[in-house]
Amino acid sequence: MIQMIKCVVWDLDDTLWEGTLREDEAGVKLLPEIAAVIDTLDQRGILHSIASRNSWEQVKNKLEQLGIAHFFLYPQCHFDSKAASMERIAKELNIGLDTLAFVDNDPFERFEVNYYVPQVHTYAAHQYRELPEYPEFQVVQATEETASRRQYMQARQMREEARKAHKGSREQFLKECRMKLQIRTARQEDYLRVVELSHRTNQMNSLLERIDLPFVESYCNQDSHYLYVAKLEDRFGAHGLIGTCFATVTEDRIDIKLFCISCRIEGRGIASAFLYTVLERLGQQVPQADAVRCLLVRKQRNLPARLLLEMLGFKKTITEDEQSTYMLPLPLPRMAFDWLEIGE
Amino acid sequence: MNRDAIEQEIVDLIKEMLNLPFVDADTVLVGNTGVLDSMTIVRLLAEIEHRFEFTLDEDDLTLDSISNVKRLTEWVIKSRQASH
Boundaries of each Carrier domain copy (chain B) (predicted)? Predict the structure, then answer.
C-alpha cells in the first residue's frame, strides 16, 4: 500500500518562488500556479511546512505579503540541515517521516535528506505542478474534516505553545484547556471520516486495517454491531472527529473489532477516556457480559495501541502470527477522567 | 554513563517533553495518576533510544517495566546492555 503524504515541506528560493529573498526581496515572486497547487493539497487535508535557510522574520513578511502565510505550520528557517528540519516537523506534527514530502530545487539538499532520512519522499522543484496528480497525494474522499485539518493543527499548535508556557501541574493545565469529548454512535455523515481515519492512522490503529465506505454502511446495518465516534473541542478550537471504535456484543461478551484514534490528540489521555466510555456504555446494554475481547496486530508502528489496551487493564491471552488476543474481565476497573468533560 | 546519570537524563527529558516542573525517580508515569499517555510513552521511548544510542526490544516492554522513573531507568539500562 502506498503511504499517503500528510505534509509537504517546501524550500523557498527558486522552489516556492523565483529569486533569492536575501538578495532581492522586492523581486521575489511566486512560481505560476503554485498557490493553486498549495490550495488544492490543503483542501485534501495535506499540510504544508517550510525548510529554508532564510531568516524567519523576512520569510514571514514575504509570505504575508504574498497572502499564503496561513498555509504553513511549524516552518523551519535556520542553518541546520534540512534533514534535521524534516525530523522536527514530523515530531511537531506527530506524523511519520514516511508521510512527509520534501520539495527543493537543489539536488544536494534532496540527496542529503534522502541520505539521513530516507523515509521522506523527495521531489525536484520543477515537479510542483504534477504533485496533486501523484498517487501518494490522493485522499480517499475529502470530508469536512479533511478541509479543516490545517485549522485543527493550528489549534493544536496553539495548545502546544500554551503547554510550554504553563507553569502549574499537568492536571491543572489539562483542566484549563477545557476539553469536551463527545462520544456517541456514528451517524451517516460521519462514515466518510471513519473511513478516512482508518486510512490515516497507524500508531493507534488496532489492526492496521484500512476499510471502505460500503464496509461501514453494511456494518452499521447489522444487529448488535456498534460504531462509536469521538469528537473533541477545547478552548483553542474544534479538533474534529478524532476517534472511532467498531464493537459487537453478544450476551456474555463485548468485542472491540477495530479502533482508530488520531495521533494529533496525543498527550492528554483522550484515547483511554474514549475506549473506556465506549465499554462503559456497551456494558450498560449487556449487563450480563463478563469480558471484553480485542484483537490486536502487534507491529512496531502501532505500539501505542497495544499500550493503550494494557493501560485499560487488558491482558494478552493468545498470540498467533502477528495477531494477539487481549481480554479484559468485566465489570470495568474504576477510572476517572476528571480533566475532561465527557458528553453524548 | 552510570545509573544516576541515565536517570537524571530521563528526568530531564520528561520535564522537557511535558513541561513538568517536578519530576524525580518516584514520579509515576503510567496509570491513573500517571503523566504519560500511550502515544507520549512511545515518543519518550523513541527519544531515549536516540539519546542513548540503542534499540529497544518492544516485545520486552510492559507497562510495569516503565511505571515510574526508577523502573524505566532500570529497564533502559537492561535493554541497553542486551542491545550492545
Answer: 1-80
**Is residue A331 reached through a cis peptide bond, with omega within 30 degrees of 0 on the bond before it?**
yes
Q: Which of B18, B61, B62 sits opposite A170 (nearest CB)?
A: B18
According to DSSP, the residues that pair with A316 across neighbouring strands are A326
**pLDDT tens-digit profile, chain B (84 residues):** 789 999 999 999 988 887 777 888 988 888 766 778 888 888 888 889 888 888 888 777 888 888 899 999 999 998 888 877
Touching check for A299 and chain B: CB below 8 Å?
no
Question: Could you tell me what percent of chain A has a pLDDT over 70?
Answer: 100
According to DSSP, the β-strands at A47-52 and A7-10 are parallel
DSSP annotation of A287: T
- Distance between A194 CA and the closest CA of chain B, angstroms: 20
Q: Is A263 on the interface with B (CB under 8 A)?
A: yes
3-state SS, A101-122, equals EEEECCHHHHHHHHHHCCCCEE
With residues binned 3-state (H G I as helix, E B as strand, rest as coil), the percentages for chain A, rounded to 5, are 40, 25, 35
The three cell numbers locating residue A328: 479484559
**Both ends of chain A: CA-CA distance in Å?**
36
Domain boundaries, chain A: 7-137, 147-343
- Which residue from A167, A203, A311 is facing B30, i.e. has the nearest CB? A311
CB contact under 8 Å between B37 and A269, yes or no, is yes
Question: Cβ–Cβ of B43/A167 closer than 8 Å?
Answer: no
CATH, domain range A7-137: 3.40.50.1000
CB A322 within 8 A of CB A316: no
Task: Give dist(CA A338, CA A341) in Å, integer.
Answer: 7
Looking at residue B32, what is its pLDDT?
A: 65
Q: pLDDT tens digit string along A64-73? A: 999 999 999 9
Q: Which residues of chain A have pLDDT under 50?
A: none
Q: Where are the domains of chain B?
A: 3-83
**pLDDT score of A336:** 85
* ipTM of the complex model: 0.88
Class of CATH domain B3-83: mainly alpha
CATH of domain A147-343: 3.40.630.30
* CB proximity A304 to B under 8 Å: yes
